[in-house]
Amino acid sequence: MNIYKQALLFFGTIFISLYSVSGQNNNRISQADDDANRNKLWYQNPANDWMKALPVGNGRLGAMVFGNITNDTLQLNEESVWAGPPIPEGREGASEYLEKARQLIFQGRYSEADKLVQDHVMGERISPRSYQPLGNVILKFGLQGETENYRRELDLDRAIAKTTFTLDGVNYTREVFSSPIDQVIIVLLSADKPKSISVDISMNRPADFDVANTGKNKIRLWGQASQKGKHLGVKYETQVMAVPKGGRLVSADGTISISDADSVTLLIAAATDYNRNDPATPLNDDLSKQCSTTLKAASKKRVNTMISEHATEHQRLFRRMAIQLGTDASRELPTDERLEAVKNGVDDAGLMALYFQYGRYLLISSSRAGTLPANLQGIWNHHLAAPWNSDYHTNINMQMNYWPAEVTNLSECHEPFFTFIESLVPSGQQTAKKVYDSDGFVVHHTTDVWHWTAPIGKVQYGMWPFGGAWSTQHFMEHYRFTGDTTFLKERAYPIIRESSKFMMDWLTKDPRSGKWVSGPSTSPENKFLTPAGDDEWANLGMGNAMDQEIIWDNFTNLLEAAEILKIEDDFLTEVKASLDNLALPKIGSDGRLMEWSQEFGEVDAGHRHLSHLYSLHPGRQFNEKDTPFMIDAINRSIDYRLASGGGHTGWSRAWIINFFARLGESEKAYENIKALLQKSTAANLFDYHPPFQIDGNFGGTAGIAEMLLQSHVQDDMGNTILYLIPALPKAWSQGHISGLKARGGFEIDMEWNNSTLTSATIKATQRGTCKVRVGDKIIDLTLAKGEKRTLSDF
Ligand code: FUC
Questions:
Q1: Are 185 and 194 in contact (CB under 8 A)?
Q2: How far apart (Å, rounded) are the C-alpha atoms in residues 449 and 279?
Q3: How far apart are CA 133 and CA 208, in angstroms?
Q4: Pocket test for ligand 1, best of 610, 693, 695 (most atoms within 8 A of CB)
Q5: Does the pTM of the predicted model rise above 0.90?
Q6: How much is the pLDDT for 26?
Q7: Relative to the CA of 444, which of 190, 250, 255, 531 has its CA 20 to 30 Å away?
Q8: Residue 15 contacts residue 9 (beta carbons within 8 Å)
Q9: What pLDDT, on the 0 to 100 scale, is given for residue 329?
Q10: How far does residue 397's CA lie from ligand 1's centre (Å)?
């Protein structure tokens, strides 16, 4: 073990960093190129656990790269490898009991209502039935001895993971990437001396697989995902092809042995029988042939062509944005040590900028047009029974995954979310009819690739019919950011209307107030103390704040879309009437925004969900301009939640960053980004719930964007207000960002110094009028399509 001491000058603070490096290497790599570490995660040791390995992905096909010298593993994923049916079913005729439960709640008999719904409405929870790994490629290298100059990195700009080291005077390089162009994972093993590469290649999986050599230089691994033999699901196949330059290749017993090659290229393909259009009917494809065809096509291409086409396609998306926060001086430290320093209290604005770009990298790598949406772990999972099955939770997590999509200029990466939510509509319509005797479509707290939508399990999480309604918000937001009226007409409006139909049937008149209220439902996963005393608690309420806020959002979006599309009909008139008489969240006697419609005692005052604040973010119902009277109540609610231990999961913390950004609380937002890094971030910068859950990465990225630009508020004429650096913390006093997107189709570049904006360039991707707000100053701007205006006098 070697001990280093290094002093770093960072924001005028000198700190001492004490760290250790295992026997792999003795020398810090000298960075000749000043920019060698920009937009990179880098390390001086191999990953000895999964949360240190580095992710690559092309939206569908992913790998975790460990970078071990002698025995290395590539852990593979394909997005559709899922254990299978049966899928949870809704219960016919449940609506009768819902009506009874409503009356019980209005009478204050909360626990009786819970029991009634639990017994007669909730369907069976079927678990585990999980997203699963595709397999592993095992690489055993004939290398022994002390290495020097070890470095492992993930280049976010080129989407390539690279490991380099020196052993016995030979410099070795291993590169891994997942190409969206060639639909293969490519592994390049090279050295600067001929005949230096000897490696045994094999494949395995934790369960349910067969493996065999095929042809001269390929191994195939195939099987059907299951949960210990139950829930037979997706059939999969993956093949690795080895293409050595020089040396000898022997293939036997499921292994390919290569000796004394100058270099080796591995190509990895995968195929499954998962049918996106109709998951119940598997595709009847020859998976083996599909893999072989893909490998054959890739093997005919020059490696350099594959690298450059891959990088160009990645950069088409990634390079739309650049960011610098502070000096980024500490990029000269390995990422894990940098993170450790932050955990020890050091401020590192550059690491926050890297985290932001990493979030964009992860979205590009796990969500591309034609793929499934990013699940709870994106596409990266090594568990056969993953936490929460690595599914699509729709009571915050899946939506949070897509918060950064529009604002960070990755609109196309939002597409899998839309396609997936649309694919839930037929099932959601059936659930609406069967369980609720209702029109429209409904989704509950979670779903998965089998497209089920029923209320299942415990009322505490399952009795919440808002997953679909919340998701329709994204369709409207996509329109607001892009101005794509075809999308609005053909995709956003129909699905918002379908969800509104359900909500119209779902609403009940509260006999006490005469207002329309939702229920019986839970405020996601939370519970309250009932007035009965003796610590009795219950889950279900009528008119919970979040329900009312999502319905407000849903109806408001529908009416706005209808107005743009010039649609008028009786249903819209009815929606307008219901909106006008919708119960709104209330402020309690202690000045907080109330989570439930009554002022209940709280069982868990620091609960991780802050559902009642949906109206602040991601909603827009409550904001400083339109509802100033709500701001203080929201602030109090967040402060109380935090003081009671809230924000303890990564995604909860990430949501809090977004709240504080919207409230203009720059220092509080910053403190929570710091806390996200300190408490909920692993060495590979994956978010820790714990365990790994990618929503915190995406929510954190969105939060950083929200601190630098906001566009959710409109002026009285309906024009977007572009609020520049609305929550800039002192620690980011100097910086720049380019390529941020705003509603109204604007694209923004900004530079600031001494915490003051020095220049802002606004580009219109469509004709538009906006108000640019900097502090309290407002500048009116009307731009033609494609026009750009640079402002510098603030
Ligand atoms: C929600 C959260 C949990 C977890 C799960 C996947 O239900 O309440 O904390 O993130 O989703």
A1: no
A2: 7
A3: 11
A4: 693
A5: yes
A6: 32
A7: 531
A8: no
A9: 81
A10: 7
